[in-house]
Amino acid sequence: MEEIRVEQSQSLKPKPQGDQLEFGRVFTDHMFIMDYTMGKGWHDPRIVPYQPLVLDPAAIVFHYGQTVFEGLKAYETPDGKVRMFRPEKNMQRLNRSNDRLCIPAIDEELALTAVKKLISIDKEWVPNAEGTSLYIRPFVISIEPYLGVAPSKRYQFIVILSPVGAYYKEGINPVKIAVENEYVRAVAGGTGEAKTAGNYASSLKAQELVSGQGYAQVLWLDGVKKKYIEEVGSMNVFFKINGEIVTPELNGSILEGVTRNSVIHLLKYWDYPVTERRISMEEIFQAYKDGQLEEAFGSGTAAVISPIGELSWGEAKLVINNGETGQISKKLYDTLTNIQTGKTDDPFNWTVEVE
Ligand SMILES: *Cc1c(COP(=O)(O)O)cnc(C)c1O
To answer: Counting atoms of ligand 1 from 1, which one is nearest the CA of 301?
Structure first.
């Protein structure tokens, strides 16, 4: 493995107070960069002062969106150490996304070592107020200056760090969600299962429209029939129907969340019936009418668990569990956040220490 060289920043920035942190607005003192050139491969891994990039305006990423990203978090634990949650899963997914976007694979071990080293250099930036964490954003951009539509011959893999505030300021709280009947996020055969910029660019319009009407996120339906449930915003989604917990099966257009995987793992460990299958919006509506729609929640790195208190679908308004956080949602949230923050033991060895 190529040695990661380090260039220390000469002017350290002031660190924000834990209670003033938002999501993704401030960044630490350093960043990781590695270059790729066709013929030479990935080379020159380095940690340098956080700084703007200088790119050719013709760089492919600006025109055709050949880019992928990841998102994960590190937490300060009660013993004063810093731990990440299942980071190897993010590196594996990064390479699955890379493959879909014709970006050359990255050595996952090197990427993990780079993230650990970067965090340890910027360790002072890991916030420790309740609910706060250090958000880690690895990403790859295509930087060859070329206006032809073709995979780039040059890339950069970059990792930046951002201390982020508590997602829930006053404890876990249900949100209102609007089922999206017009726009779609992804289709089978498209790029829905890759974490790539285009998916998020195409989701903005629907999100804009519903947030003006008081909804936190949209619930995406399948791109062909607009019948089957896919995801909620940029989270995976679960429902509890008559005692059974169901989530849409991975079908090529759904992003496979690390939180989703952890939720399924925990539910099985607790012996709850959990099924990955196709779920139509009609089925959810019928379960609601029959009084069997017991809980609904989203899962993702940012919120961990986000209970759904109300679903609007055309004229129908489905109020779930009286608009309150359900038992399973709460139990999953508490268990996952306690493992992540080191408040309980970690029976599945999910956390990885930053040395
Ligand atoms: C990142 C993401 C998720 C959640 O994945 P986690 O690994 O749990 O954070 C779900 N859906 C979409 C579209 C995403 O981009």
So the answer is: 9
